[in-house]
Recover the amino acids of this structure.
């Protein structure tokens, strides 16, 4: 079982999401930064890798479902479902981009990727 580590540096990078996530360049830059700010404002300060990956899934799915939250900008609600699905699919890449040049997060990134693969396998089995 992995230990919790601080994700405060990652939350800071989420506030400049478009700078760290070139994979999302097909979405308007302001919207990407709004997504990053939403995630940063709703994440705790420390997580295990598994819990970090799960928190991102829950927060992104909350946007798709239209969960009411003071921290959600209207621009983030009502996007095409494929947009939210793409964000969930990109969690490993998002985590890797946020952790780039932060050597102490190498195993964290690997563990988030492992969690994401397990999640995809479970989803595939349930179909």
């Amino acid at each position: 079982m992995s230990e919790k580590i601080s994700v405060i540096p990652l939350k800071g990078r989420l506030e400049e999401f478009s700078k760290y996530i070139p994979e999302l360049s097909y979405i308007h830059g302001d919207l990407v930064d709004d997504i990053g700010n939403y995630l940063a404002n709703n994440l705790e300060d420390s997580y295990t890798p598994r819990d970090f990956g799960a928190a991102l899934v829950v927060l992104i799915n909350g946007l798709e479902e239209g969960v009411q939250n003071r921290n959600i900008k209207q621009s983030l609600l009502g996007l095409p479902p494929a947009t939210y699905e793409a964000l969930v699919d990109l969690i490993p890449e998002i985590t890797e981009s946020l952790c780039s040049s932060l050597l102490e997060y190498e195993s964290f990134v690997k563990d988030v990727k492992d969690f994401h693969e397990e999640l995809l396998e479970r989803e595939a089995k349930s179909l």
Summary: The chain has a mean pLDDT of 88. The helical segments are 8-14, 17-20, 29-42, 49-65, 81-89, 91-99, 106-126. Strands lie at 5-6, 46-47.
